[in-house]
Design brief:
The chain is about 25% helix and about 30% strand. By secondary structure, the chain is an alpha+beta fold. It folds into 3 domains: about 100 residues, no CATH class; about 150 residues, Sulfite Oxidase, Chain A, domain 2; about 120 residues, Immunoglobulin-like (Sandwich), CATH 2.60.40.
Length: about 425
């Protein structure tokens, strides 16, 4: 590229064409860094201004004769070429540094996970360490309850604006519900359980009188997040606008002052910091985008639907990667524990295999869940010989459907498959 620019300088190519060549080169470089485009575009702008300034610098006025003029022109061309090279190198290095700083200053999508031997059926509110949390934000919204409002508009006869006091004054329900993120990987910790208190969304929708042609609900949040789900799901009595979590006001990280709880749908359909609900008919153009209407849906997530498939996993003894952290010992009984979750279908059965799926034994469901929450299970095993073996767990949902065994990665449609964990057995 620099050789080409030097040629342009020598043949007297107009300055703006040289700048355009650098712009093209910058964009070729930036295409490999799509996640940090704002930073890269800033670097590109700085680079363009720097390069143009170099090319616009007037030549020295004092020249004695034609030979001196030619020598001076060649000297200026070489200096500009070197300066351009130094400037481009500096800009690329600065871009790399800014990208590293950007990654250090933002949250990982996979967020805070909850798993391991201390998992409880109902977790206390400890959002820093005991309830999974995923956020798209560098800084989450800081909403004031007194000034917060919820608008319900769109295809309705009676649009309404609710204050928090309006909603808190309505008859409330408490409901145990488990949330699971669409980026939950087989055996991971992006899943947690709580008791939520709030008002059925159907109560609010009845007051605004939806028109007969409504098919979809579009919701928006204080952080700019938006998503959709079907109107029939919104009208189910278990779909809540919730303002308490395990007996306390929603923590800021979990949507204070109000969020949606939508049992059976991935966490992305349970928006935090809810501020607006819009009812749409099927003719609404927003519903006919390439991937559908929604913050993650428009990025290609959830193409196969929003319903959570059945999951089960090992939590105890401690699992590290694909193996139990500590070895087992011959002749010493081991209690293996974990959780199973069937979306909004409940769990009817859990089975464990200690020989990589060749044979299966029933596990004991020690803390049954509701149809909307996870169940905790336990399995007793006695190692009788040294060596390595693989444990596998599978669950059957409340409708009698066995967990999907075929592995699928969580990107972009949510994971399926069975949790396999290797165990090493040593002499006592």
């Amino acid at each position: 590229m620099f050789e080409f620019v030097a040629l342009l300088v020598r043949i007297g190519c107009p300055k703006h064409l040289i700048v355009l060549r650098f712009v093209d080169a910058f964009f070729e470089h930036l295409r490999t860094f799509a996640p940090s485009l704002p930073i890269s575009f800033s670097v590109c702008g700085i680079g363009i201004m720097f390069f143009y300034g170099l090319l616009s610098r007037p030549p020295h006025a004092a020249v004695l004769d034609e030979n001196a003029t030619a020598v001076a022109a060649r000297s200026i061309g070489r200096r500009r070429f070197v300066a351009l090279g130094i400037g481009a190198t500096f800009a690329l290095a600065l871009g790399g540094t800014l990208r590293r700083l950007f990654r250090m200053g933002t949250f990982s999508y996979d967020g805070r996970q909850y798993g391991g031997p201390n998992v409880q059926k109902i977790t206390p509110i400890r959002p820093n360490d005991e309830f999974y949390q995923v956020s798209k934000n560098l800084i989450d919204p800081d909403v004031t309850r007194v000034s917060w409002r919820l608008d319900i508009v769109g295809q309705v006869e009676n649009p309404r604006v609710y204050s928090f006091a309006d909603i808190a004054a309505m008859p409330a329900v408490e409901q145990e519900t488990t949330l699971l993120c669409i980026s939950y990987g087989v055996g991971s910790g992006l899943c947690s359980n709580a008791i939520w208190k709030g008002v059925p969304l159907s109560t609010l929708l009845a007051q605004v009188k939806p028109k007969p042609n409504v098919t979809t609900v579009l919701f928006r949040a204080a952080d700019g997040y938006y998503e959709t789900f079907r109107f029939e799901k919104a009208m189910e009595p278990t779909t809540l606008v919730a303002y308490e979590m395990n007996g306390e006001p929603l923590p800021k990280r979990h949507g204070f002052p109000l969020r949606l709880i939508v049992p059976g749908l991935y966490g992305e359909k349970n928006p935090k910091w809810l501020t607006r609900i819009e009812l749409l008919d099927e003719a609404d153009g927003r519903l006919h985008r390439r991937h559908g209407c929604g913050f993650y849906k428009e990025q290609g997530w959830g193409r196969e639907g929003d319903s959570i498939p059945t999951h089960s996993r090992f939590d105890a003894p401690q699992v590290r990667g694909d193996h139990f952290e500590a070895p087992f010992q011959v002749g010493k009984p081991v209690e293996v524990r974990g959780m199973a979750f069937g979306g909004d279908r409940g769990i009817s059965k859990v089975e464990v295999s200690s020989d990589d799926g060749e044979t299966w034994d029933d596990a004991e469901i020690i803390k049954p869940g509701t149809k909307l929450s996870w169940s905790l299970w336990s399995y007793q095993w006695m190692p009788d010989e040294e060596g390595e073996t693989t444990f596998v767990v599978r669950a059957t949902d409340g409708n009698g459907k066995l967990q999907i065994s075929e592995y699928r990665d969580q990107v972009p449609d949510g994971a399926t498959g069975l949790h396999h964990v290797r165990a090493l057995v040593e002499k006592a």
